[in-house]
Amino acid sequence: MSKNIYKGLLLSNIKKEYTLSIVAKLKGKKVDLPLEYAELTDEEYEELTEKYGQEILPLEPIVSQWEKKLLEISFKGHESVLELFVVTNEEVFQWVAVKVFRINLSTGRYINMITSSLLYGKKYNRRRGVRINIDKVMNLEQEGETFHVIVKDLSYCGVGFFELGEGMVKKGVPFILHLTEPGENGEEKLVCKLVGKILNQRNDSGGIFSGCILSTKHAAFLQKYIAMKQLEQISGKKQDFGITHNVIGENWKRDRAERLKASK
Predict the structure, then answer these.
(1) Helical H segments across 119-251, by residue range
(2) β-pairing verdict for 188-203 and 120-123
(3) DSSP state, residue 206
(4) 26 DSSP β-pair partners
(5) Better-scored residue on pLDDT, 246 or 94
(6) In angstroms, rounded to a whole number, what is the distance separating the alpha carbons of residues 110 and 70?
(7) Distances (CA, A) of 175 to 151, 160, 208
(8) How far is CA 213 from CA 174, 193, 234, in A?
(9) Which domains are present in the chain?
(10) Each residue of 151-198: pLDDT tens digit?
(11) I need a surface site. Which of 26, 130, 209, 262 has the fewest CB within 10 A?
(12) Largest alpha-carbon pair distance within the chain?
């Protein structure tokens, strides 16, 4: 009887329904770029596997849309370590040191292809994904009640938020976080309602900091949202969605408390 056990996820078992991204360095900063699975014809798939073997991941050309322009990311001669992340319905998997190639198929189509020296992608802690700092008061619903929290950071797999005092949001109970951005008239507009739950909590300067996971159904949306924020930061241009720097300086604790009190 075979003693082989399931160690992770094979590249060949990745499905188009999964959320895919690759972490690369652009101008010295890490960026989490969305990927789109390339659906191939039987002939195209056979052509690829004959040349490169079964353990490959075909992708549409890796492109990020930003300010109505297409920025194509070329990995030719790329020496930085590239990491692949795959979000399934239940888990997140990571491959380190993957390689990205441009492949010209005999059909005239070109795609990107990922290979790895690792047979399996390893399970990855969802809260350790690439994050953006937010530091903004938002509403959170749980069991019919609404709470005001300061959202500290956001990734496509998790969120961290702060509450004053002992904290009212319950651990392990699903909540709905209202992700908002400033609208044209200065009022906050709802971008998305994110479903999540608290995994861990700690005391933090007069309040409670909660580390949470988010439902995988939001992963594709958040992936694109976060990638655009990162590209905006790299460009040095003004951000359009109201993301602010973390509070700094000697009065950061008082400022944090005043913002929460004002929101109530």
Answers:
(1) 219-235
(2) unpaired
(3) S
(4) 29
(5) 94
(6) 17
(7) 14, 13, 16
(8) 10, 14, 27
(9) 9-123 (2.30.110), 131-235 (2.40.10.220)
(10) 999 987 889 999 998 889 999 999 999 999 887 777 888 989 999 999
(11) 262
(12) 67
Which pLDDT tens digit goes with each residue over 201-254? 999 888 999 999 999 888 888 887 887 777 666 665 544 443 333 333 444 445
8 A C-beta contact, residue 158 and residue 214: yes
Q: Give pLDDT, residue 2.
A: 34
Whether the Cβ atoms of residue 219 and residue 19 lie closer than 8 Å to each other: yes
175 contacts 169 by C-beta, under 8 angstroms: yes
Question: Rounded distance, CA 25 to CA 213, Å?
Answer: 25
Tokens of 32: 């989490």
- At 33, the amino acid letter reads L
CA 5/CA 73 separation, integer angstroms: 37
Instruction: Please give the structure tokens belonging to residue 33.
Output: 């770029």
**Residue 258 DSSP SS3:** helix
Q: How far apart are CA 123 and CA 188, in angstroms?
A: 37
Instruction: Using alpha carbons, list the distances in angstroms from residue 251 to 136, 247, 254, 255.
Output: 16, 9, 5, 6
Find residue 178's DSSP bridge partners: 193
Q: What is the pLDDT of residue 217?
A: 87
Q: How far apart are CA 61 and CA 72, in angstroms?
A: 8
Secondary structure letter of residue 253 according to DSSP: H
Closest Cα to residue 129, out of 229, 31, 61, 244?
31
